[in-house]
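Hey team,

Filing this mostly as a record. A colleague (T.K.) asked me to run one chain through the structure pipeline before their review meeting, and I want the input and output archived in the tracker in case anyone asks later how it was produced. No errors, nothing strange. Just documentation.

Input sequence:
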Amino acid sequence: MLNYCARYISVYRHKLAVYLSMSIVSTIIAIIIPIFCGQIIDLMTSNQDVYRLIKMGILVLLLGFLNILIGYWNYRFYIVIQTNTAEDISEDIIHHLHKISLNELQKYDMGYLNESINNDSNSIVIFFLSLIVNALSNGLMLLSSLLILCTISLKVGAVLFLLICLYIIFFLGIRDKLLREAESYKDARSVFFSALLEQFGNIKFIKQQALEDYYKSKLKQEFKIFFEKALSVQQFFYRYSSADDILEIAVNFCIYVLGGISVVKGNMTIGGFTIILNFYKNIIASIKYFADLGKEYQDNNASYKRLQKYCELKEQKNGVQILEDISTISCNNLCFTRDGQRILQGLNITFEKGEIYCIHGENGSGKTTLIDLLSGLFIGEYEGEIYYNDINIENIDMREMRRRKISILEQEPYVLGGSLEDNICLSGKQLESKYFSRIIKKKIGTVGENGKGISGGEKQKIGILRVLAKQSDVLIFDEPTSALDQESKKDFFDLLKKIKKEKIIIFISHDKEAKQIADKVIEMSVENHD
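Output structure:
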């Protein structure tokens, strides 16, 4: 985990160096101030020069203000490093997940993934920064405080050291249990937050079907499972943290009894006893930090292991060859099975440039699956062969082909929030004005996220224009006319016939008019799967 975080944080190493340096200066000031405070008390009790006492007081005041100023800038550097590093980690993991098999990715709940990646990335970065900065500061504080305390009273220092050693032994005995509890709690929390996301993600469906009571009951069941796990883990962590309280009680006894005896016997000044009290607080704070660090390490190690599971998911196979032109796409004895169900069986077909193909068939016959296979979404997960220009698809860089040479209109086009142009020209290419005017005749202003504020037909037109804007060799449309009016449908079909010469055009449609303009109709049936 530490090496993993260090690789990302090293990008901000200059800011980290400043943050670390200021933290050390702040710690040194925190060590010096109690010593000066003890000396001020001794000056008060010994009736020495008032002028010197005032100078010491002003020095303590200035050091306090300096520490506040350092703390302000330190926090700014911390926020910059922490938020950017966590974002870099999340971004890389999400980018990796984009490259794994669609089948593999669909095994995960999206709400769970979202909560897990975001929280775990932030968690391990916060822990790492705490380790390299706060561990150094607290270690310096602890050692310095013990050394100064031993200088004032060796007995008190020796007893404190013994208690610290006993606490370390205690932690080593339960650290494995800490890790297991932390992992189970994180999983339960992610499942619950996924259930929360479902409540909002399906809000329209819930309202349409009047399922408010059902979903409320479902959420209660998920919360009950999460609550029971959270309560169990909290009880365990409370027992663990009670060791801190026991340690503090023991230290209190040592300080007040042993220190008090030394003052009574004249072996220690009141100022020296005050210094011990101040450093005792520093020692307790540092010990508690390192005690929590052990628990935090196990907790964040669970987060790291969960992130690593995502990173270790095998990327989908992707070739290296890039085609400058696509003239044919062929399927030879193509078979595909998902979740034990045969979707396609022995399909043989060739798509050629200059032709319009209409894939027709009942629901469940594998039409959309065929499109997914042709576009390279399931490479290595099917039987048979798929060829582009007589080159096996497994040898082609299909991610690059989808970016440049293949355009796909989804059955439910996803629309981004923003302007119409932002939605259409995702590839950066400019759409020819003659295409634009033939598809969209009514002005569309700013579009809400996922098409909020526009009709289904307008979403479909934006999707069609997005396909055309890439100027690809292969145009694939999944139910492109389902939400179009008759006039828009006719314009769309006329446009396809006009541009088909230099393209392979494939569309899935139940529309009878679509079959009429197609050069070839491919009939698919559920009965052909077996």
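Quick notes for T.K.: The radius of gyration is 34 Å. The first strand starts at residue 328 and ends at 338.
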